[in-house]
Amino acid sequence: MRHVLAAVLALAATPVLAQNAPPATVTPPGDGMLDKPCPADQRGLNFAHPYVRQYDWAWQCRFAEADKQLAQAPRVVFIGDSITENWVGLAPSLFVSGAVGRGISGQTSPQILVRFYQDVVRLRPRVVHIMIGTNDLAGNTGPNSPEMYTNHIAAMVDLARANGIAVVIGSILPAAKFPWKPLLAPARQVVTLNAWLKDFAKARGAAFADYHAALVNADGGMNPDVAPDGIHPNAKGYAVMEPIARAAIAEAEKLGAKKR
């Protein structure tokens, strides 16, 4: 019963992608290696859709077409989970002048790593903003460890740097509890991982965007006025984050220029 309740809470608490009504079914385009493996109609798909879970675990199809349609290399690519995905709609002023969002709700660091080359490296941005970890702590794709998480972050940073892309590492946002995993108390783990992220950014010549310090409350979470569910910022929350992001991106560009 406890597992059933947790599943129901997860579905209720996780934002669904804003798309049109889904088709009745999503049929795979064929078997084996194909020139066009993505379904033509992806309306209504989200990270929990059976098609995505069975055929596209990292959901590489989500931005495959949008990546191809970019007229020029973006200045910045923001990659992450729902916190990054929601940012585009709630703070659109940040996503102009060459900034694009590549966040997917519900994703964890291994999923981001799988699609990192497609959704970041091949776009040839000057800067990538990496912010992921909430769903790792929640175990969205199963049990994992701090070492697994840090390995994934390190791999993304090394991929970016090897391709001449400057890096911003965004802190994990404060979280006192997860609405879809109510038995977990992640606040201390968030602090521990953020300390590692900050040290790692410095060691790798990346900028660190400390959103946690700007948003955290006395309980290690976020207040309802900036994040109504305690996890996902609203427009007010993103307004707090935006100047931190802009400053970190500018810092990353300077660090990248020194290396060239």
CATH class: Alpha Beta
Task: Provide the low-confidence segments as ranges.
Answer: 1-22
Q: Mean of the pLDDT scores?
A: 90
Count of DSSP E strands? 5
CATH architecture: 3-Layer(aba) Sandwich
CATH superfamily: SGNH hydrolase
Number of helices: 10
Measured distance between first and last alpha carbons: 57 Å
**Order of secondary-structure elements:** HHHEHEHEHHEHEHH
How does this structure look, described?
It is built from 10 helices and 5 strands, in the order αααβαβαβααβαβαα. The chain starts with a helix and ends with a helix. A 5-stranded parallel beta sheet has the order 2-1-3-4-5, with helices on both faces. 44% of the residues lie in helices and 9% in strands. α7 runs parallel beside α8. The model is unreliable at 1-22 (pLDDT under 50). It has one domain (2-15, 62-259): 3-Layer(aba) Sandwich (Rossmann fold). The protein has helices at 2-13, 50-55, 64-69, 82-90, 109-119, 134-138, 146-162, 187-204, 211-215, 235-259, and strands at residues 76-80, 99-103, 127-131, 166-170, 207-209. It is of the alpha/beta class.
Summed up, what is this model?
Helix content is 44%, strand content 9%.
